[in-house]
Design goal:
Elements lengths: L1 E7 L9 H10 L2 H8 L4 E3 L21 H10 L6 E8 L6 H13 L3 E8 L1 H8 L10 E7 L5 H9 L17 H10 L5 H18 L2 E7 L9 E2 L2 E3 L3 E3 L4 E2 L2
Parallel strand pairs: 3-4, 3-5
Antiparallel strand pairs: 1-5, 1-6, 2-6, 7-10, 8-9
Helix pairs in contact: 1-3, 6-7, 7-8
């Protein structure tokens, strides 16, 4: 249920420009990242939440297209590229450091000069847990597990404007009123079909506005010995051994 993404701080130029954000999505080859770096242990994102979460609505993926990325950057006035800082943790997510390096290299191919900044996890979160006017981060890698299995937790907590840090978990400081309205309505509506439609509409808008570089959802990998029975591999990324036993 965990989605990995690279957020854009919407208070920083040129990341406040939707064309720039879309360009950087086209510049990153998330299919190659999953296949070559993660050895297939992931799924390229087609939404801000993973397919196992209620409310998921698949969108047409941002195919790797450096030429389209350069066209959008030129349209936004950055035909010569720009410089940006990219903060990321190491050892928090599957192959996170290697993925960050790959993304930095791919962005460089379209003229974006990336300064990679690796931080220890606790320090990393504290660094970004500030009001927007105090923020210094620009690009940042994070993951989010929709542990309730519902799009409300997957989208509201990270993309609603009421959830800007330090009061919530929206570190991109995006404010899309139409998305806010849909997420507000969906969390109050008891009709699953209506909620699904609202989340589908919200995801379609988010996909177009591109608050993140949409990377992938992780595949949980656990190993057990053949004689172990009753071990529960929970989708919330923990293993329950309460009823486990050795069948010898």
């Amino acid at each position: 249920m965990r989605t990995i993404y690279i957020g854009f701080n919407h208070t920083k130029e040129p990341l406040d420009d939707e064309k720039v954000r879309r360009a950087l999505n086209y510049a990153v080859d998330n299919q190659a990242i999953v296949e070559q770096i993660m050895d297939g242990a992931g799924r390229p994102s087609d939404a801000p939440i993973s397919p196992d979460v209620f409310g998921h609505a698949a969108q047409e993926p941002y195919e790797y297209d450096p030429e389209r990325a350069e066209e959008l950057l030129a349209e936004a006035g950055y035909e010569d590229g720009f410089e940006v800082t990219f903060h990321h943790p190491e050892g928090r997510y599957m192959m996170d450091n290697t993925i960050a390096e790959a993304v930095g290299s791919q962005l460089a191919d379209v003229g974006v000069d990336v300064d990679l900044q690796t931080m220890e996890w606790a320090t990393y979160l504290d660094y970004m847990e500030v009001y927007p006017e105090e923020s210094e981060h620009e690009l940042f890698m994070l993951g989010w597990g929709a542990v309730t299995g519902d799009a409300d937790y997957g989208l509201y907590a990270t993309l609603h404007s009421d959830e800007w840090v330090p009061h919530g978990s929206n570190r991109a400081y995006n404010e899309y009123p139409e998305v806010d309205d849909l997420l507000d309505q969906a969390r109050l509506n008891p009709d699953p079909d209506a909620r699904e439609d609202m989340y589908g509409e919200a995801i379609e808008i988010l996909w177009e506005r591109a608050p993140w570089i949409f990377l992938h959802s992780e595949v949980q990998i656990n190993i057990e010995r053949e004689e172990v029975e009753g071990l529960i591999h929970h989708p919330r990324e923990y293993i329950s051994a309460e009823e486990a036993y050795l069948d010898e």
